[in-house]
Amino acid sequence: MILKSLLKLRALARESFSPEFGRLDVLAFSLLLLIVFAGPFLYGWSGPGASGRSAALPSDLILELLTDVIAGATLLARTRLRSPGRLAVPFGALIGIAALGTLQILPMPEGILRSLAPVNVRIYHETAQILDLFGRHAPDPRISLAPAATVSTLLLLLACLGLFFAAINLLRNRERRRLFALCFFSTAILQVLLAVVGGHLGPGAPALPAGLGKVAPYLEIALALAFGAVWAEILTNRGRVAAASVSGAERFEARSLPLAGRFLVWALVAFGIAETGSKVGILAAATTTLAVLATAVFHRRVHFPRRRAVGALLGALAALIFFATLAGARPLVRFLESDPVGLNTSAKVTLWRSAYHAWQEFPIFGSGLGAFPEAIRRVQPRELGGRIESARSDPLQVLVTGGAVGSVLAVLTVASFFFLLLKAFRDQRHREESALILGGIGALLSLTIHGLMDSAYPSPAIPAMLACLLGAAWAATSKKAATA
Fold first, then answer.
1. Is 269 in contact with 192 (CB distance < 8 Å)?
2. Alpha-carbon distance 427 to 46, whole Å?
């Protein structure tokens, strides 16, 4: 069985790296797999994340340079590029966010800045007075309170756009998408094993620098992709063997082992999320699993009695958990408060209230992408000591740093992606491709739910991996996806 699997992997690699694609195309695909496999290891998972970086870290620069090479090679390759027409709304919204970030870092005449962001002008005057005492030159007035952090966040956004574009065009056939999924699972499982085994063997054992404490959102992406793999196998399992050609034992082996293997991958990733201790991650993963399972049973290729009733029941259960959490149901609140790496409810509510007050200082254009620590400092209460890196809520984070303009663009981006992926899932007739689209929906939903209760992006690797998976999911939306 192992030999057969190795032979299949060899055939998969041969098809994926075929010279007929062209050297540049193969190079770009190889580097994309390198980012998927090694990207998460570039970060120690314990840093402040995109919102709290004051300047680009070496890991960020490596990711951004590799993305530039991948996107450039994809553009220059001989293969025909996918039309971005159906993605006009989310692409336009993301470009709008990039334009907002560019506006925030541009030096402006004081009169214009006062009309756009009067509080920002006052802050720059205060900064100039302090610097003048030390004989230092005052910075040029800008909307952003931390231009270096805004530039870093802007570069990360452009890198994610590049990865999404590359994944759409490079993962255009089934063999490449399968190899992409294998690479994604290998990294996720390796991180779980290193952290868990290293944690039990002691401080001298090889392990991730921060264990699994910051990896929960990344594993949520992997869990959604693993669910898609399991669902694809459930849909296609019956057709693996012809009943007349093999014995009952051979049919059982041919059908049970692939399903068991994929379920084992899903179980290992789920175990990793549980081991992180992130109660928000566990709750988001559980709610998302129910929601995507409810969505899956409504696909046109699924046929079993009372499937509509089952789907409605699962969807209602997911909605009940979600809204009960938002409403502050005591059992769920106690569960979330037991998070060893989280804040208690009182501290988190205080932080959210402070973030809301910070947004009122910069209501329209925000304080600058990535400038949350500088913005919250003006209204930071005494009970929240030290430097606050994030709002522990992605909507509030975007509201403070991007203002009302950035928040509208962010909501438009997420909502349009959901709509397009759900429509593509409904229209895709191929079972394996529809399951991959379902995995993309699950990943985006899980991080959205996570982000409502805590920061879903503690590391730049997480938006990068999400961009890769969403690109793979969109590549599977093509009607020719199974044979392209």
1. yes
2. 41
Residue 296: CA count within 13 A, CB half-sphere: 29
Q: Phi-psi bin for 108: left (phi > 0), alpha (psi -120 to 50), beta? A: beta
- Residue 340: Cβ-neighbour burial (10 angstroms; 0-12, 13-18, 19+): exposed
**Residue reference for tokens 């690699």:** 13
* CA nearest to 218, candidates 276, 153, 265: 276
Burial-class residue 442 by CB neighbours within 10 Å (0-12, 13-18, 19+). Answer: buried
Q: Name the residue type at position 326.
A: L
CA distances from 182 to 201, 246, 264, 428 (A): 28, 29, 13, 22
Q: Which tokens is 12 given?
A: 């998969």
**Predicted confidence band of residue 209 (pLDDT cuts 50, 70, 90):** very low
The predicted structure's pLDDT at residue 344: 64
Find, among 316, 292, 170, 165, the residue nearest to 234 by Cα.
Answer: 292
- The C-alpha atoms of residue 78 and residue 404 are separated, in whole angstroms, by 42
* Local structure of residue 141 (DSSP, 8 states): P
Judge whether 32 and 170 are in contact, CB under 8 Å.
Answer: yes
> What tens digit of pLDDT does each residue of 370-386 get?
999 999 988 888 888 78
Residue 2, Cβ density class (10 Å: 0-12 exposed, 13-18 middle, ≥19 buried):
exposed
CA separation (Å) from 127 to 27, 133, 145, 368? 48, 10, 10, 16
Contact 66, 31 (CB under 8 A): yes
Amino acid sitting at position 124: Y
Chain length of the chain = 484
CA distance 416 to 18: 35
Cα angle, residue 422 at apex, residues 480 and 314 outer, rounded to 5°: 125
C-alpha–C-alpha distance, residues 67 and 236, integer Å: 35
Structure tokens at 214: 């910051």
Distance CA 351, CA 397 (A): 11
C-alpha–C-alpha distance, residues 252 and 145, integer Å: 63
Kindly report the three-state secondary structure assignment for every residue of 79-116: CCCCCCHHHHHHHHHHHHHHHHHHHHHCCCCHHHHHHH
pLDDT tens digits, one per residue of 166-191: 999 999 899 999 999 999 999 999 88
